[in-house]
Amino acid sequence: MTVTDIKQIDKSRLEIEIDDTFTFVLYKGEVRAYEIKQNQELDEESYQKIMKEVLPKRAKLRAMNLLKSRSYTAFQLEEKLKKGGYPDGIIKEALDYVISFGYIDDERYAADYIEYNKEIKSQNRIYMDLSVKGVSKEIIERMWEGIVGEDKKELEKKQIFQWMQKKHFAAQTADFKEKQKMVAFLYRKGFAAENIRNALSLDITII
Predict the structure, then answer these.
(1) pTM exceeding the 0.90 threshold for the entire prediction
(2) What secondary structure does DSSP assign to 71-105, as a single string?
């Protein structure tokens, strides 16, 4: 295999390209230690050591360090490791490692997020937030039903009234334009049209 390119990422790291297709990142000291040079062959022994020892260990440590400061979904942690220049196979190995110890659990993450935000965010907003974080629809729905269940309509109505109070909005005295403005605001927050309509006692033509 041929080292077709070497790019400097920052003061201490270099991106190594193999055969114009495959890349990985090493520290400058490692590049010197393995005598990696552009347009020269990388011997199989060195390559295997990098792929099976150096990078897996580093990726696992990186994942563990990230998880010390906050929780991540599997998708979020994968994206972090991708930004670090780790190859896909190394990323999978690191993810499998932290998952095996229970350090990453998308169900737990979703449950914690729902529990923390259910009083302040709409169901749609929570679903959207968790989807962006890479949590599957099936997990989101299951965790939502388990935590909120039949209380979801009352919970959303309560949230809508809280926003109305915060905005000093009174449906009884508001004119049509003010009602439309409030409806649009609540809709952007992710509340269902039916719940907005019921809370504001508005005519269906307004929504």
Answers:
(1) no
(2) ---HHHHHHHHHHTT--HHHHHHHHHHHHHTTS--
CATH code given to domain 3-100: 1.10.10
Domain extents for the chain? 3-100, 106-147, 153-206
pLDDT in tens, 8-54: 999 999 999 999 889 999 999 999 999 999 999 999 999 999 999 99
78-118 confidence digits (pLDDT tens): 999 999 999 999 999 999 999 999 999 999 999 999 999 98
User: Residue 123: phi, psi to the nearest 5?
Assistant: -60, -45
Give dist(CA 197, CA 201) in Å, integer. 6
Q: What are phi and psi of 26, to 5 degrees?
A: -130, 160
Q: Are strands 3-8 and 22-27 parallel, antiparallel or unpaired?
A: unpaired
* HSE (side-chain half, CA atoms, 13 Å) at 201: 7
Buried b (16+ CB within 10 A) or exposed e, 73-86: bbbbbbeebeebbb
Residue 85 φ/ψ region, left for φ over 0, alpha for ψ in the -120 to 50 degree band, beta for the rest: left
